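Quick one: structure for this chain?
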Amino acid sequence: MISWEEFNLEEPGLADLGKRMLLQTRAHTGLAFLATIRNDGAPRLHPVSLVFSHDHLYIFIPPDSPKCADLKRDGRYALQAFPPPENEEGKEFYISGTVKWIRDLSARHAIIAETGIYVEEHETLFELILDRAMYTVLVDRGTPKERPWHRIWPIAGE
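Got it. Here's what it folds into:
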């Protein structure tokens, strides 16, 4: 499990593709689908806003949100970038791992200061720690040979 910063050092090309997919409209914030695990073991899927700050990936979640309770109880997640507009190449980006609950107020204030985002005072801050990343693009799209091509980290066998 590694931070986005470490992922970027280890796999800069894949990290760059992922960051562009996650930050389609703004410099520091983006939108994605977050999957968590409900108390009964079933999956839960929600759209979330995410924040890049100091080369780390974060989410702020209201404390009364079901996904916040999921992450506090079982920190595992999967995150899928929103598909880009006019996605002619069928691009996708996905990460999974566990969250780190950040309770340090100075870290919270540094993220808000760097990004200029508005955050409710009571929102819970989590850092997304990665254990897997995958970028997918369709090759030979629109032909009988159409198929997905994947770039996956870590490479099988690592």
